[in-house]
Design a protein that fits this description.
By secondary structure, the protein is mostly helical. The protein has a domain at 34-83. Helix content is 45%, strand content 0%. It contains 4 helices and no strands. The N and C termini lie far apart (97 Å).
C-alpha cells in the first residue's frame, strides 16, 4: 500500500477516478501526430545515400559503356566475334 497516496498499488484507479483525471487534463495521451503519408514514407526510403551512389554508378556505366564490352579481358569460354573463324 502506498502510504503517501493512500492507494493500494495493485488496484489502480477506479473508473470514476480515471474519468475525473481525464476531465482535468491529466490523462496519459500523446496528442502529437506520429503518422506519415505514404508519399513521405516512399520518399524517405527511396531517396537515400546508398541509392544515390547506385544511380551515379549506373549513369557512369550507361554513358561510358559496359566495362565488359570495352575491356581487353576475355571471359573464359567466350571468344569475341572478331577472333572467331
Amino acid at each position: 500500500m502506498n502510504e503517501a497516496a493512500g492507494i493500494e498499488a495493485s488496484l489502480g484507479l477506479t473508473s470514476e477516478e480515471a474519468q475525473a483525471r481525464t476531465v482535468a487534463g491529466e490523462a496519459n495521451v500523446d496528442a502529437g501526430v506520429k503518422t506519415r503519408s505514404i508519399g513521405q514514407i516512399v520518399h524517405d526510403n527511396v531517396c537515400t545515400l546508398f541509392n544515390l551512389v547506385n544511380v551515379v554508378l549506373a549513369l557512369i556505366v550507361l554513358f561510358t559503356g559496359s566495362s565488359a564490352e570495352t575491356s581487353n579481358f576475355q571471359r573464359p569460354g567466350r571468344a569475341r566475334a572478331c577472333h572467331q573463324r
